[in-house]
């Protein structure tokens, strides 16, 4: 879309279209090169806007990705709920949480940046909207797991959900190294142990937590 088209738009639906165009461009850029590599100027160029005009809709790059992250949280919630069987075993709960994360590399990438960068340089309103979304997702999944899996208390279910996303944020960068590290691991296989496989690593750690939580009561 041209810059002139953006300038002419005045109606609320046009403003929503602009925001969606910005979010879509930011998503595509992040999928292509990773969240860390995307700049505000890059997003503006991708949608055909001047960076100063883009700031009318999102104050910062971080606010763009914080909103995308909130959407990814909601998408993950629906996927987990659809994956949970009526009366899941602990392994089935872990599988539902882990497998749906593995299917969402952008979500995992966003999780790995949330606390360290995306929650910085944002307005209070943007931060509040994000946190309300995250707590809603965790609360919904907590209730679903505790209801369908009586072996977990509500508190244990909440810890399990929070741990799943925390582990994803921790393991994803290690399992998807930047080019220099990828080349290093290819040259020196002994160092490649630092590049852990995402899905089995998260699943094993989350399984250990699920098995251990009842013992801490």
From TrEMBL:
InterPro entries: Homeodomain-like_sf (IPR009057), HTH-type_TetR-like_transc_reg (IPR050109), HTH_TetR (IPR001647), TetR_C_34 (IPR041483)
Keywords annotated in UniProt: DNA-binding
PROSITE patterns: HTH_TETR_2
Domain of life: Bacteria
Domain HTH tetR-type: 16-76
Pfam families linked to this entry: TetR_C_34, TetR_N
Gene3D superfamilies assigned: Tetracycline Repressor, domain 2
DNA-binding region(s) in UniProt: 39-58
Matches recorded under PANTHER family: HTH-TYPE TRANSCRIPTIONAL REGULATOR RUTR (PTHR30055), POSSIBLE TRANSCRIPTIONAL REGULATORY PROTEIN (PTHR30055:SF178)
The protein, known as: TetR/AcrR family transcriptional regulator
Taxon lineage: Bacteria, Bacillati, Actinomycetota, Actinomycetes, Streptosporangiales
């Amino acid at each position: 879309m041209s810059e002139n088209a953006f300038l002419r738009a005045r109606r609320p639906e046009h403003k929503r279209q602009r925001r969606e165009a910005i979010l879509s461009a930011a998503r595509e850029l992040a999928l292509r090169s990773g969240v860390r590599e995307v700049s505000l100027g890059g997003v503006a160029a991708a949608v055909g806007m001047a960076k100063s005009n883009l700031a009318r809709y999102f104050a910062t790059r971080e606010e763009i990705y914080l909103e995308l992250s909130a959407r990814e949280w909601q998408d993950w919630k629906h996927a987990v709920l659809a994956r949970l069987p009526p009366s899941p075993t602990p392994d089935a709960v872990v599988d539902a949480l882990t497998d749906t994360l593995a299917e969402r590399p952008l979500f995992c990438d966003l999780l790995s940046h949330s606390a360290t960068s995306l929650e910085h340089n944002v307005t209070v309103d943007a931060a509040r909207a994000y946190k309300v979304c995250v707590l809603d997702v965790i609360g919904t999944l907590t209730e679903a797991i505790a209801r369908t899996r009586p072996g977990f208390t509500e508190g244990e279910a909440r810890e399990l959900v929070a741990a799943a996303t925390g582990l994803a944020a921790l393991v994803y960068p290690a399992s998807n190294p930047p080019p220099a590290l990828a080349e290093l691991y290819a040259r020196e296989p002994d160092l490649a142990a630092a590049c852990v496989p995402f899905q089995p690593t998260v699943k094993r750690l989350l399984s250990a937590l699920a098995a251990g939580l009842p013992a801490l009561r």
